[in-house]
Design brief:
Length: 356
C-alpha cells in the first residue's frame, strides 16, 4: 500500500508543478491594481481603523473577563465577549495578525505619529501575548515567517538562500512544538511529542491514505464540491447550505473531537477518485495567484508580507483541508490587500482642483 501511496502522491505533486508551469507560461500581464484616492492618508486611516477594532476588542474583553480571564487560554474554545458573532470574532483575530505584519510598513511611513505609534505597539504586545498564551499557530506562524524573511533579507544572496532553507525546514517543527509544549512540560504525560502528533491533526499523509482505503468518503453533492468550501462555509452563516467541511466529516468518521489532519492528496482522492490529479489544477491556480499578487507588489516590503502568507499557506495545506487552509490565509491576505490597493494620486487631485 505504501508503494501505491508514494506513486499517487508523486503523480499529484508532479501535476501540481506542471499546472503551475502552464499557468505561469500564460505570461499574464499582471498590472499593479491600484485605486486612485483623493484622501491623502488613506492607508494610514485604514490601518488606524484596524488598530482601533483590535484595541477595542481586547479592552472590552479585559474589562469584562479581567486580564487573567482574557489570557487564560483558547478563546476559540470559550465564549469571549464578542463570541456570539462568530465571523466577527474570527476577522478580529486575523486583524491582530495583520496589524503585526503591517507594522514595518506603518513604522517606515507613519512612525513619527507618536501617539498612534504608541497605541500600535501596545496593541501588538497585547495581541502577541494573547496568541502565544492561546497557542494560536494560525496567527503566529505568518508573523514568524514574515519577520524572519525581513531579518534575512539584509544578508547577501548566498547567505539568504542558506538561512531561508534552514528556516523553512526548522520553523514548522519549532512552531508546532511550541504550540503543544504545555501538554508535556509537567513531565507526567504518557506521550512523547512525536507520538502525540500521530494521534491528532498531525497524523501523517500516509495514515490518511490508509483511512481512505479503509472506506472513508466525503458526503458531497458533486465531485469537487469541497473546493467550494470557502464560499459555502461562509454562506452557512446566512443560510443552511448543508455544507460540512472535509475535516469535520473526517472527525465524525474517526469519532474524535478534532480531525486527523488532511493532505492535498487525500482531499483530491475524496473529490475525484481515480481522477485525483484534477485537483492539482486548483492547487496550482492558488499557488500561481500568490505569485501574481507578489509580482504586483509596490515594494520589496509588501512582497515580503505577501510571501510570508504564501509560505504559511503551503505549510497549512499539508495539515488541514482546503477550506481551512484557504480561509485562515485569505482572510489575512484580503485585509492587507485593502490597505495596499489604495494610492493617493497627487497630480490627479491637482488637475481636478484646477479644472473647477
Amino acid at each position: 500500500m505504501y508503494i501505491t501511496f508514494l506513486f499517487d502522491n508523486s503523480i499529484f505533486w508532479f501535476c501540481t508543478i506542471l499546472s503551475c508551469a502552464v499557468f505561469l507560461r500564460l505570461d499574464l500581464k499582471i498590472k499593479r491594481l491600484r485605486i486612485d484616492c483623493k484622501i491623502k492618508n488613506i492607508k494610514f486611516i485604514i490601518i488606524c481603523f484596524y488598530l482601533f477594532c483590535v484595541l477595542f476588542y481586547e479592552a472590552l474583553n479585559i474589562a469584562t473577563l479581567g486580564i487573567g480571564g482574557f489570557y487564560s487560554g483558547c478563546h476559540y474554545c470559550g465564549p469571549p465577549v464578542l463570541g456570539g458573532f462568530g465571523l466577527l470574532s474570527v476577522i478580529i483575530f486575523d486583524l491582530g495578525t495583520v496589524l503585526v505584519l503591517l507594522f514595518p510598513f506603518y513604522y517606515i511611513n507613519y512612525g513619527k505619529r507618536k501617539l498612534i505609534t504608541s497605541l500600535y505597539i501596545l496593541t501588538i504586545v497585547l495581541t502577541l501575548v494573547y496568541f502565544y498564551v492561546g497557542s494560536y499557530r494560525n496567527q503566529l506562524l505568518p508573523i514568524v515567517f514574515c519577520y524572519s524573511v525581513i531579518f534575512f533579507y539584509r544578508f547577501s544572496e548566498i547567505k539568504r538562500k542558506i538561512y531561508y532553507t534552514i528556516f523553512l525546514m526548522a520553523s514548522p517543527v519549532a512552531a508546532i512544538s511550541m504550540a503543544f509544549f504545555h501538554y508535556f512540560e509537567s513531565g507526567d504525560s504518557k506521550y512523547t511529542l512525536l507520538t502525540y502528533f500521530s494521534k491528532n491533526e498531525f497524523f501523517s499523509n500516509y495514515n490518511n491514505f490508509i483511512i481512505y482505503n479503509n472506506g472513508f468518503r466525503l458526503d458531497l453533492p458533486f465531485s469537487g464540491a469541497s473546493y467550494l468550501g470557502p464560499l459555502l462555509y461562509r454562506l452557512n452563516s446566512f443560510i443552511d447550505t448543508g455544507f460540512s467541511t472535509s475535516a469535520s466529516q473526517m472527525a465524525r468518521y474517526m469519532r474524535t473531537g478534532i480531525g486527523y489532519g488532511f493532505s492535498p492528496l487525500l482531499e483530491s482522492l475524496l473529490n475525484f477518485g481515480d481522477y485525483f490529479f484534477l485537483a492539482s489544477i486548483i492547487i496550482g491556480l492558488v499557488i500561481c495567484s500568490f505569485k501574481w499578487i507578489i509580482d504586483s507588489s509596490e515594494s520589496d516590503l509588501t512582497a515580503i508580507i505577501y510571501f510570508s502568507l504564501f509560505i504559511f499557506y503551503i505549510f497549512n495545506i499539508n495539515r488541514v483541508d482546503f477550506t481551512a487552509a484557504f480561509n485562515v490565509t485569505f482572510h489575512k491576505l484580503i485585509l492587507i490587500f485593502i490597505v495596499m490597493v489604495f494610492k493617493y494620486d497627487k497630480n490627479k487631485n491637482i488637475s481636478s482642483y484646477n479644472s473647477i
